[in-house]
Amino acid sequence: MKTLKQISILLLCMALFLACKNKSEKTEEENTADIPVSREMKAELTSPPNVPRPVGRRKAKKLIVNMEILEKEGTMTDGTTYNYWTFGGSVPGSFIRTRVGDEVEFTLSNHQDNKLPHNIDLHAATGPGGGASSSFVAPGHQKTFSFKTLNPGLFVYHCATAPVGMHIANGMYGLILVEPVGGLPLVDKEYYLMQGDFYTAGENGAPGLQSFDMQKAINENADYVVFNGRVGSLTGDNAITANVGETVRLYVGNGGPNLVSSFHVIGEIFDKVRVEGGSLVNDNVQTTLVPSGGAAIVEFKVDVPGTFIIVDHSIFRAFNKGALGMLKVEGEENKTIYSGVVQEGVYNSVDDNVQKMPKADKNVKVASSNKSLAQKMESGKQIYTQTCVACHQAEGQGIPNAFPPLAKSDYLNANTKRAIEIVLKGKTGEITVNGKKYNGVMTRQTISNDEIADVLTYVYNSWGNNKTNVTKAQVAAAKSGH
Amino acid sequence: MVLIKGGTYTPLYGSDSLKVSVQDFKMDVYPVSNKLFLEFIKKKPKWKRSNIKKLFADKNYLINWKSDMELGDNQSINAPITNVSWFVAKDYCDYLGKRLPTIDEWEYVAMANEDLPDARQLKTYNEQILGWYEKPKTFNNDIGSTFKNYWDIYDMHGLVWEWSLDFNSVLISGESRKDVDDDSKLFCGSAAIGVTDLMNYAAFMRYALRGSLNAKYALKTLGFRCVKDLNQ
To answer: What sign does the CA torsion over A288, A294, A300, A302 have?
Structure first.
């Protein structure tokens, strides 16, 4: 009797277990197309670097998305503007957050002042063109279509109107997130950033309104590679922030049109990467590839305070074309994880270990000592372009927090002798320029005294500086001074 | 109006075997201005904003006018008329014994720059046009404010888009990358295999715009001008 009771209890348990198992399998295998929707909800849209609230445990809904297309002039970098074409007024376009099974009712409105027809291809939509053919809309009109989100993941959307490349190159892309049932695990901070390459008639840094250069785009020869549509969108006051101990999740997209991103955060290791925005999770990643027209979700816990630089690790893009952002982390230091400088001293090997810049290939005429100002300016500009522009930039504007400006520079204008010495011997350590601290290294420049005089004269007579005419004799004096 | 000497050319979507012939015709030197359109509407009150049937124009029809017969505060009397539907544009030309140009005719004249009847191979020509396509809000500039082309015609590029008689023959589905598979002669795909003038992005954009239109649409950036056959 006792045995029978035990057996029956055992059977009951097994039955319950099986039932549970069946049920859980059923949820996993459920065809997402069959997820029912209940009620309507207006989607919250955000401009970068912000993202809307997580979906959490909400049920699938009919999600109303209203997006407006605006063609408008915006800042590419200080002193340079560009005619952006945008979804929702920003580059990248507004972030759309949905969950699997949502029925998205999408209305695309093309502002009446716009010149061109546009449409939208959402990689999250299943159907011909991802919505492109249903959303093709003339200026001053709107189109509505709907789609059901079948696959969870982070997806790119973009304009697909001919010429497609040009519409994308002008900024028409953004991200749409489809969260799985129950939502992604909650984290402390979430941000939205998207890389894009831009092709302008003038070179990087050329001032004024720059138009799109089709030939450069075809040659994939980008003048700007940036996060969130412009240089400096995530640096200085625009930096994204977190506190020590928090977990940060970045929704990273790449609009292209051409270049693939080697996404990296200097001084952090990604604890988790949802590779290509899909379900595959990779752990402990240094640099993750974000394809053009693709995305990735990266997560990491910030353990120590400081500024973490976000880059495309195709590194010239970061320091010369703008693909540089910052994550500022505040909180208590943890010396076990990162000590900072513990000791410093002098090191002298037998070789001359001073860093030298390779001597630039010069066509510069070495002229007599009594050159006119105009001649010095001309020669100085050439030298500047070959030697200085990579760091100090074309208009002497420098790069915030990395390379100090030469334009209207109080540090420069205060002391000519010091400026000559820096070019001659290089400079290491903290300096303050126009109220901002810089702590970097400038290598010594192996150019002739004559060339130093010319290039400094050029710098002093450009960009609002004090018009000092630096002579070869001054350079020679500074050189022999030590 | 000025005389346009006809000829044969290969349009954007064509190949050598698909050349297009255009007969001699006359064309308006400028797009129709607000001023001329006001005069027309005085004579044809059925096209007043308050009278027009929904079938013939959408809600954007003359939307920025103060009233039926008054321009908006910021609109110049000599700027091109815009926010007009194809039906009204067509009737305007008919009323004057003219007609709207066909796409082939319009594109034929639009190939010209200041000096050449066909400047499409010139990099500068394409760049100039693209520059305009990117420049916002040119619709309120006066007619004649852009360049005079080879045919002595003004404002083909740089002011507003223009209606054509057969705008809806453009087979752009809206999914421009798919159109390469269509039977249509217009390959407007991103790869654009088969397009004769690969560099002519500007023309792509014109065709894309036409493809997005509906005859009752009234766009702020879309005006028109008329042409006339010679034997009339």
So the answer is: positive
A91: left (phi over 0), alpha (psi -120 to 50) or beta: beta
Range of the domain at B107: 2-229
* Closest C-alpha to B132, from B114, B145, B151: B145
> What are A74-94's pLDDT values in tens digits?
999 888 999 999 999 999 999
A190-225 pLDDT tens trace = 999 999 999 999 998 888 899 898 889 989 999 999
Structural domain total, chain B: 1
What number of other Cβ atoms are within 10 A of residue A359's Cβ?
11
Q: CB of A166 within 8 Å of any CB in chain B?
A: yes
For A298, phi then psi, to 5°, come to -115, 145
**Residue A152, Cβ density class (10 Å: 0-12 exposed, 13-18 middle, ≥19 buried):** buried
Q: B201–A135: do the CB atoms touch at under 8 Å?
A: no
Q: Residue B17 and residue B19: Cα distance in Å, rounded? A: 6
| Residue of chain B nearest A143, judged by CA positions | B212
B123 Cβ partners below 8 Å, 6+ apart?
Answer: A215, B199
Token representation of residue B88: 């009204």
ipTM above threshold 0.95: no
Q: What does the buried/exposed string (b/e) look like for B68-101 if buried means 16 or more CB atoms within 10 Å of the residue's CB? A: eeebeeebeeebbbbbbbbbbbbbbbeeeebbbb
Q: Is A136 in contact with B126 (Cβ distance < 8 A)?
A: no
Kindly tell me the burial class for residue B45, based on how many C-beta atoms sit within 10 Å of its own C-beta (0-12, 13-18, 19 or more): exposed
Domains of chain A, CATH where assigned: 31-336 (2.60.40.420), 373-480 (1.10.760.10)
Task: Give the CATH number for residue B102.
Answer: 3.90.1580.10
Rounded-to-integer distance, Cα B213 and Cα A70, Å: 19
- Is residue A421 within 8 Å of A433, Cβ to Cβ? no
Tell me the shortest Cα–Cα distance from A211 to chain B, in angstroms: 6
